Amino acid sequence: MVFLAPRTWILVPEQMPYWRLSSFYLFYFASLGALIPYWSLYLKHLGFNIADIGTLMAIIMATKVISPNIWGWIADHTGKRMAIVRLGSLLAAMTFACIFWVQSYWWLALVMLLFSFFWNAALPQFEATTFTHLREDVHRYSSIRLWGSIGFVLSVWGLGLLLEGQGIVLLPIVLLMLYAGIWLSSLMVPEEAAGHLPLNHESLKSVLRRPQVLGLLLACFLMQASHGPYYTFYSIYMQEHHYSLEWIGSLWALGVIAEIIVFLLMPRWVPKFGIRNLLLVSLALATLRWVLTGLFPENVMLMILAQTLHAATFGVYHATAIQLIHHHFAGRHQGKGQALYSSLSFGAGGAVGSLYSGYSWELFGAEATYLMAAGISLVAFIVAWKWVVVEK
C-alpha cells in the first residue's frame, strides 16, 4: 500500500513516518545551505585570506573521513542509530556555540574540528534509518530526501537577502538555531525505527575487494573533489564578478530547485534508464558545468545554465550513488557502507577539493582552478564507465 504525500504525486509506503523523516532532512540541509555558501564570506569578513579560508573549510570536510566510520561501526554493533543521530546533533550544536567566544584562526579551527566531528556523525546513520523504512522501495528515497533540498533552497535564498552587507555577522546565530532544529527533529524519530539489522554472512573486507565497489567509491571521491572550488569559493567568485549577495543566493537556490525537480523524477527515471547510465550522465555533465563556470563567469545566462546542471551533478549523482552503496553494502554492513560513502566522498573528496582549490586559486587563478575541477570530474566519469556495474 502507498499514500500520497499531501497533495503531491510523491508515492511513499504506508505507515512510513514520512514527515518525521523529512523534517530532519529539512533542517539538516537548511544548515548546509547556510554554511557552505556563506561561511567562506563570513571568514573573509573576519579578515582571513583565501588559503586560510580553504583550510578552515577543509576541516569540515576532513572530519567526514573519520567521524562517520567511528559512529557507523558503533551503530552497526549496537543497532542504536537514532541515539547516535540525537547525540551527534546535540553535541554539534553545543560545540558550535563556542564560536562566539573567540574568533582567532586556531580557535575557529578547533571549534570547527569538534563541531564537524559530531555533525558529520548524524547524516549517514539517518540515511541508513531511512533505507530501513523504505525496505524494497529504495527508489523512493528521493521523495523523502527532496525536503532536504527544499530546506537548502529556503535557507540559501532567504539568507542571501538577510546577510547583504554587514548582515553577514548574523550568520553564526542563524546556524546555531538550525543546528538546534536538527536535534529537535531527531527526537521525533523513534529508536525502534532504525531497527537492528541482521548479521550479513559476507565480510566487509570481501565487499570492499570487489572492483565495482572500489570503482564506485573512487568515482564518488573524485566527483566530490571536483566540487571543491564550487563549495568553497563560489560565493566569493561571484562576488568578485560583481554579483550581489541576493543574486548569489538566487543562483545557489536555482541549482537546488533543479535538484528538487530531479528528486521528484528519480523514482521514474531509475527503472527507465538504469542507475549506472544515470550516474555516468551526472559525471559527464559535471565536467561541462565546471568548464562553463570557470570560463564564463560574466555571462549571466551561462551561469544560470551551469547552476541548473546541479540537478545532475548533485541530484542525479547522489540519488544513484547512495542507492548503489545500499545495493553493495547489505545487512549489518549498511551503516558502515553509508559511512564509507560519506567519508570518502563528502569527507576525503571534499577536504581534498577545498585544499587544492585554495592553493590553486592563489597560484593559478579561478579559471585554472575550475578547469582543474573539470578534469577531475572527467576522470571520475572514466572510472565509473570502466568499473561501476550493477549486479542483477
What does this structure look like?
The protein has 392 residues and is mainly α. The chain has one domain (15-197, 204-387): MFS general substrate transporter like domains (Growth Hormone, Chain: A). It is built from 15 helices and 2 strands. The protein has helices spanning 18-45, 50-78, 81-96, 105-134, 141-162, 171-186, 204-208, 211-226, 228-240, 245-273, 275-295, 300-308, 310-328, 334-364, 366-387, and strands at 2-4, 11-13. Strands 1-2 form a two-stranded antiparallel sheet. Strand 1 (2-4) and strand 2 form a beta hairpin. The longest helix has 31 residues, at 334-364. The two termini are 26 Å apart. The model is unreliable at 1-13 and 193-197 (pLDDT under 50).
